[in-house]
C-alpha cells in the first residue's frame, strides 16, 4: 500500500474532526482531507485539488507552533489527526512530535512519514537520492526507548514507511526536557547507520490489517462521547490491548 492510500483510508476509518499537516509540498496528501485542516510548509507549491476548509501557512513548523493561537482554525482547539512530513532531519521531526503532542488528546492520532528507509543512501541527512527519508527513522528509536507509554506501530507502506502513534499524553514533558541530550545522542553525520531490522522491515504492521482493526470505531466513540471529560492515555492502551491488530504494539 502506498502512503497516500493509507492516509485516505485512515481518514475514512478514524473520521477526524480536523487535520494538521506539516510538510505540504505539492499537496498530494492534503488532498485527501475533507475536514477543517491546517497545513504548514515554508515553500509549498500546490498542484493537487484541495477540497477542505483550509488554513495554509507558509512558515516553518517551529515558527507556527510558537504562535499562541496556532489552532484557532479548529473549533476543538486540539488536534485529532496529524501527519508529520516536513523536514527530513531527526531533530526537526522530533520537535514536531513534541509540539503536536502538546496540542493533542489521548484519542488523537499522529502519523510520521519516512521511518523505514530502504538503504543508507535514502537515510542520508544530505539528500542525494530521488526517494528520500532522511534520518527520521531515529524518532521511532527515541519513542521506543524513552516513551514506552506510547503505542507506536510501524507500517509497511511504500515507499519509505509510516509510523502510527497512539495513546498520546499532552502532559508528558520527558522528550522536551531531554531534547538537547537526545539530539547529541542520536544526530550524526552521514553516512547513517540504519539498523538491519529497519532495512528489512522486520516486525512492521500490515497497513490493510491495521485499517481493518475493530478498535477504530471504539476510538471514535471514546473521542466523541464525552468531550468535556477527555479519555486518558490508560483508557486508550486498554482499548488497544483488546484488539489483536494492535495488541502486540502495546
SSE diagram, text form:
Blueprint (H helix, E strand, L loop, with lengths): L2 H12 L4 E4 L14 E4 L13 E4 L3 H5 L13 E6 L5 H13 L1 E10 L23 H10 L4 E5 L6 E5 L7 H4 L1 H8 L9 H4 L7 H5 L3 H11 L7 H9 L2 H4 L3
Parallel strand pairs: 1-2, 1-4, 2-3, 4-5
Antiparallel strand pairs: 5-7, 6-7
Structure write-up:
It is a single chain. The protein has 11 helices and 7 strands. It has a single domain, classed as Rossmann fold (3-Layer(aba) Sandwich), CATH 3.40.50.150. The chain has 250 residues and is of the alpha/beta class. A 7-stranded mixed beta sheet has the order 3-2-1-4-5-7-6, sandwiched between helices. The model has no long low-confidence stretch (mean pLDDT 96). The longest helix has 13 residues, at 90-102.
Entry summary:
With 250 residues, the chain is an alpha/beta fold. The protein has helices spanning 3-14, 61-65, 90-102, 137-146, 174-177, 179-186, 196-199, 207-211, 215-225, 233-241, 244-247; strands spanning 19-22, 37-40, 54-57, 79-84, 104-113, 151-155, 162-166. The radius of gyration is 17 Å and the shape is globular.
Amino acid at each position: 500500500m502506498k502512503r497516500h492510500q493509507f492516509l485516505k483510508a485512515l481518514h475514512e476509518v478514524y473520521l477526524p474532526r480536523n487535520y494538521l499537516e506539516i510538510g505540504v509540498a505539492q499537496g498530494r496528501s492534503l488532498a485527501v482531507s475533507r475536514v477543517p485542516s491546517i497545513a504548514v510548509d515554508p515553500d509549498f507549491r500546490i498542484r493537487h485539488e484541495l477540497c477542505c476548509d483550509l488554513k495554509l501557512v507558509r512558515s516553518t513548523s517551529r515558527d507556527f507552533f510558537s504562535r499562541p493561537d496556532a489552532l484557532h482554525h479548529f473549533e476543538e482547539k486540539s488536534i485529532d489527526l496529524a501527519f508529520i512530513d516536513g523536514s527530513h532531519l531527526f531533530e526537526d521531526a522530533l520537535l514536531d512530535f513534541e509540539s503536536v503532542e502538546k496540542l493533542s488528546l489521548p484519542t488523537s492520532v499522529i502519523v510520521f512519514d519516512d521511518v523505514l528507509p530502504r538503504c543508507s543512501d535514502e537515510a542520508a541527512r544530505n539528500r542525494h537520492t530521488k526517494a528520500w527519508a532522511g534520518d527520521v527513522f531515529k524518532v521511532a528509536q527515541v519513542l521506543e526507548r524513552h516513551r514506552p507509554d506510547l503505542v507506536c506501530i510501524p507500517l509497511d507502506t511504500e515507499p519509505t514507511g509510516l509510523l502510527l502513534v497512539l495513546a498520546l499524553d499532552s502532559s508528558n514533558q520527558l522528550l522536551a526536557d531531554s531534547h538537547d541530550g537526545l539530539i547529541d545522542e542520536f544526530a550524526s553525520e552521514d553516512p547513517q547507520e540504519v539498523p538491519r531490522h529497519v532495512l528489512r522491515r522486520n516486525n512492521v504492521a500490515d497497513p490493510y490489517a491495521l485499517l481493518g482493526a475493530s478498535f477504530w470505531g471504539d476510538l471514535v466513540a471514546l473521542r466523541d462521547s464525552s468531550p468535556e471529560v477527555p479519555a486518558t492515555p490508560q483508557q486508550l492502551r486498554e482499548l488497544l490491548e483488546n484488539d489483536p491488530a494492535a495488541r502486540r504494539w502495546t
